[in-house]
Amino acid sequence: MITETGTVIALKGEQVWVQTIRQSACESCSARSGCGQRVMASASGGRANQVLVHNAVSARVGDEVTLGINEQALLSASLVVYAVPLLLMVLASIAGHQLSGGEDAGAIAGALAGLAAGFWIGRRLQAGRGDRYQPRLLRVNRIAAGEWA
């Protein structure tokens, strides 16, 4: 489970808005010195993000909470989002090049068609997954009271 700490900033029915600042993953990562994500986060001052999640732990406004997302879900989503369009783009580019008799325009057209098809297929593959890719509220960190909820 990949986790991130955030602060509840608003309640909305049975859901809460949680504000996070990307930094905890960078601090514990072994590749932090050569990673572009860390450079981008430091350049933006650790940009704050807000996410709406189901309030499964009865969090209140001002509470520090821990969010989590399944590592396997994140990995499979990354493969679908990046690998499928890239693979289809390369294959369609080769096919377009062969079908056009070696013309570059055919390879370019094939690459664009393959990329578009890859994005469309990726979207369809992830559409039926429900809330698998949504972060979950794991716990309320009650630091002031000296306890973990």
TrEMBL record:
Superkingdom per UniProt: Bacteria
Record keywords: Membrane, Transmembrane, Transmembrane helix
TM region positions: 79-99, 105-122
Pfam families: RseC_MucC (PF04246)
InterPro entries registered for this protein in UniProt: RseC (IPR026268), SigmaE_reg_RseC_MucC (IPR007359)
Coiled coil: none
Name under which the protein is recorded: Positive regulator of sigma E, RseC/MucC
